[in-house]
Amino acid sequence: MSNEEMKDLELHEIEAKLSEQEGLRREKLFELQQEGKDPFQVYRVERTHTTQQIRDEYEQVEGKEVSIAGRLLSKRGQGKVIFADVYDREGKMQLFVKLDNVGEDQLKFFKTLDLGDWLFVKGAPFTTKTGEISVLVEKFQLIAKSVKPLPDKWHGLKDPDLRYRRREVDIISNPEVKETFLKRSRIISEIRRFLDDRGYLEVETPILSSIAGGAAARPFTTHHNSLDIDMYLRIATELYLKRLIVAGFEKVYDMGKNFRNEGIDYKHNPEFTMIELYEAFADYTDMMDLVEELVSSVALKVTGSMVINYQGKEIDLTPPWRRVSMADLVREHVGIDFDQIQSDEEAQAIAKSHHLEDEMKKDLKAYTKGEILNLLFEKYAEKSLIQPTLVTDYPVEISPLTKGKRGNPALTERFEGFINASEICNAYSELNDPIIQRQRFEQQARERDLGDDEAYVIDEEFMSALETGMPPTGGMGIGIDRIIMFLTDSASIRDVILFPTMKPLA
Questions:
Q1: In a domain, 230, yes or no
Q2: DSSP labels for 187-199?
Q3: Taking all residues of the chain, what is their mean pLDDT, rounded to a whole number?
Q4: Is residue 460 part of a domain?
Q5: Pairing between strand 408-412 and 404-405?
Q6: Quick check: 459 and 213 in contact, CB under 8 A?
Q7: 0.70 cut: is pTM over it?
Q8: Fewer beta carbons within 10 Å, N or C terminal of the chain?
């Protein structure tokens, strides 16, 4: 029998066992309902303390009646004394269930409880001989029945696919997963606090729009029946936020979900959390300072240090981060000085000699020098950016919403931040000249005609706002999920999204 066949047989046996257990649990529930003790008819309970509050206030509550509620996750003992553990949102509390305190009938009933059941317990906190704070149970009540068995610790939810599909059980079975999502919440709160303290205003922009603008990405399409028009889930919030800068809100941000109809891997999920922020009278150098300070300060508050360990690598988030141009990185890793390349044809010959065909979305002869510079960077240099790095001076062809670089119109005042070879942010000195912006959009339209379905679409409402007048502005988008990956030492973006996108089971 092959290893795969052995695994299938083992899984079949486990499923059969779980099915049998589920049947027994349902029988217990039916019997309780017949006796008028249906746990699902309990509407609320009045708990006085969480498990952590009992620990924090132990000197005040020792020996006094408290009430707690939680899920039963372990049970030990068969005689006149049973030890059990219940878990609430803050942790574990040991229960001491003794015949003398609860009586014979209740002790017998307690022994029939299943792991996963929810209990309401009244009793007095005390400390055991081993020094563990526990509750001496006086009364308990079954308040919800778990009719589906939890996985045992061995087979548990170790399979990543099953963990992501049954996240609620994953959190129950694996305490470190719960800790990751508690930390996620704190990271997001700290980011908001950081920006709020600097005078930024949080706003909400549309998720549904008639144009998918603000980024180069494939959108998800839906249809509005009443208006009889196709609409798109947003791929970015940029254009709406710039309209608010035009309106006079000088510092704004939107943190929320974006949607891109693209591939799924350890760094990408079609639905992800992004923050975009814009500041009037600033440029991309201000955004460099901002992202360094934001990420490092949040890391310090959440992890206690600006130096983190990510998947076995020590990463130092302490500002300042390395700042280096895309051309310098290509020179460093490929050995080609693009400042010396004079024509698109010369760059195309370099692309051919470096076998960039797999990275191309159109015919080689349609590529410009700047686009080929970017392809070389992505293929050869990006993977080396382990320590925090801000890559600057992106070609104008791939930066349609960005101001030209002072002194070099072939480049733009744009940077992307990288940690562990993953992009974490994208920032510009925002283009505010409506004449040049329209020319850029028209060039993007031509790119779409050549087959690039990720090229930008002209948004006339945004153009109207830009023509009304937008002051010099610095803007930035930050991938929140990736920041959380680094600060929680999570290998995959699915590990930091509660319910990642999954292919439905057949």
A1: yes
A2: HHHHHHHHHHHTT
A3: 93
A4: yes
A5: antiparallel
A6: yes
A7: yes
A8: C
Q: What is the rounded CA–CA span in Å between residue 127 and residue 122?
A: 16
- State the CATH number of the domain containing residue 260: 3.30.930.10
Cα atoms in the 13 Å half-sphere on the side-chain side of 367: 24
Report the C-alpha gap between 53 and 124 in whole angstroms. 14
The pLDDT of residue 20:
87
Q: Residue 285 gets which letter from DSSP?
A: H
Q: Is residue 376 part of a domain?
A: no
**13 pLDDT above the threshold of 80:** no
- For 177, the domain range is 173-321+387-495
Question: Residue 189 contacts by C-beta under 8 Å, 6 or more apart in sequence?
Answer: none
Burial 95-110 (b: 16+ CB within 10 A, else e): bbbeeebbeeebbeeb
Q: Where residue 48 sits, what CATH number does that domain have?
A: 2.40.50.140
For 437, other C-beta atoms within 10 Å of its C-beta total 20
Chain segment 194-204, per-residue pLDDT in tens = 999 999 999 99
Whole-angstrom distance, CA of residue 150 vs CA of residue 71: 11
Judge whether residue 426 has pLDDT over 50.
Answer: yes
By residue count, the chain amounts to 506
Percent of the chain with pLDDT over 90: 81
Task: Supply 167's token pair.
Answer: 């996240």
Residue that is written with structure tokens 């996750």 in the block:
73
